Every structure is written in structure tokens, then in C-alpha cells.
């Protein structure tokens, strides 16, 4: 299967921006060591600082699926349940 990209957005509840930022930063290192990851970069929206955006590239859908089942992602999801107002994940493929 061909390379895929992901845009993952998490919006912190008011007052939880720094807790969410720290939790997101905590998954960057382990994820960058996973098999099949090509890019895993965390960004913060300049106009809406509660909004955090991951820009990701994966070798395959299977690599992304393994990432979603990883222990550090499971721990992250459990930790941030009360801190996230909204999250959205878009999986896309490059056209040009």
C-alpha cells in the first residue's frame, strides 16, 4: 500500500491547554520510533492556542493502524479524556 498522510487536530478545553500540550509532546518521541512513521510533527495554532495539530506521514495504512493500537497512544487517550473539547483525525493520500 502507498504512503498516507494524517492531519490530527485536538482542541483543549479552556484552562487545559498546557496539560494537553505536555501530553501531546509526550507521545512524539515514542511515535517517531515506530516502524513505518515518516513524519510526526506537532504544531500549535497561532490564532487559536487551544488548537494543536499533528501533521503525519506513514508508510502505509497498516503502520498507522499499529500506531493507533500502541501502548503510548492508549495511555495518552486515557490521560486526556477530560482535557479535550474536540478532536478530529483526517487520513488522506497525496494527489500531486
UniProtKB/TrEMBL annotation:
Keywords: Monooxygenase, Oxidoreductase
Organism superkingdom: Bacteria
Pfam families for the chain: ABM
Boundaries of every ABM domain copy: 4-92
Protein's UniProt name: Quinol monooxygenase YgiN
One example GO MF annotation: monooxygenase activity
InterPro entries attached to this UniProt entry: ABM_dom (IPR007138), AI-2_Isomerase_LsrG (IPR050744), Dimeric_a/b-barrel (IPR011008)
Keyword check for Zinc: no
Amino acid at each position: 500500500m502507498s504512503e498516507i498522510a494524517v492531519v490530527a487536530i485536538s482542541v483543549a478545553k479552556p484552562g487545559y491547554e498546557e496539560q494537553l500540550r505536555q501530553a501531546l509532546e509526550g507521545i512524539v518521541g515514542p511515535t517517531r520510533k515506530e516502524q513505518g512513521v515518516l513524519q510526526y510533527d506537532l504544531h500549535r495554532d497561532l490564532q487559536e492556542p487551544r488548537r494543536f495539530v499533528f501533521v503525519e506521514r506513514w508508510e502505509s495504512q497498516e503502520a498507522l493502524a499499529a500506531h493507533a493500537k500502541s501502548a503510548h497512544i492508549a495511555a495518552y487517550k486515557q490521560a486526556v479524556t477530560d482535557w479535550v473539547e474536540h478532536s478530529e483525525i483526517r487520513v488522506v493520500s497525496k494527489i500531486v
